[in-house]
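Title: Comparing notes on inverse folding

I've been comparing how different people in this forum approach sequence design from structure. To keep things fair, I'm posting one structure and asking everyone to reply with a full sequence. Here's the target:
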């Protein structure tokens, strides 16, 4: 197993009530969602944590980073999990069209990875690309997709829209 898989598995809940599905692990090997010591480039973690735990909404970034391991366990204990559409990183600078192609080519692998959770898990698709490519594919396969519209990636200047759209979902 590679270090991304090891980190992800460490925080996989026994029962997943809500699974976020993002694009792919980052190209940079020092800023993955489940890595405990990330100093920058972790906006997805920061904004998901603030969204699912409203008591952390006003915490400063440095406070959240200082408590990342504890917060990852809290995320796990709450039944939350983050999976990626593509198992491998998508090279930085890849066009949207090529991202869509890569994610489309990864659909069956994604379905195989999340199929065991289909019956009891809710799913949230993160990023316009993931939503565009996977929404109908997963919905038609019987997955309970909560968002009916694309939720933008929070690191692209769309943090407020991300926060509002996540808040509008029934995450319970």
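Reply #1:
Here's my take.
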């Amino acid at each position: 197993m590679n270090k991304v898989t090891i980190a992800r598995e460490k925080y996989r809940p026994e029962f997943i009530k809500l699974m976020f599905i993002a694009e792919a692990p980052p190209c940079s090997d020092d800023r993955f969602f489940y890595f405990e010591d990330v100093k920058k480039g972790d906006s997805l973690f920061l904004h998901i944590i603030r969204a699912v735990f409203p008591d952390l909404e006003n915490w400063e970034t440095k406070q959240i980073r200082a408590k990342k391991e504890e917060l990852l366990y809290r995320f796990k204990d709450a039944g939350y999990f983050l999976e990626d559409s593509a198992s491998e990183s998508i090279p930085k600078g890849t066009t949207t069209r090529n991202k869509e192609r890569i994610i489309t080519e990864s659909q069956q692998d994604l379905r195989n990875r999340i199929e065991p959770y289909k019956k009891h898990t809710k799913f949230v698709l993160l990023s316009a690309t993931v939503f565009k490519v996977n929404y109908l594919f997963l919905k038609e396969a019987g997955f309970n997709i909560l968002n009916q519209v694309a939720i933008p990636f929070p690191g692209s200047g769309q943090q407020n829209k991300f926060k509002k759209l996540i808040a509008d979902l029934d995450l319970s």
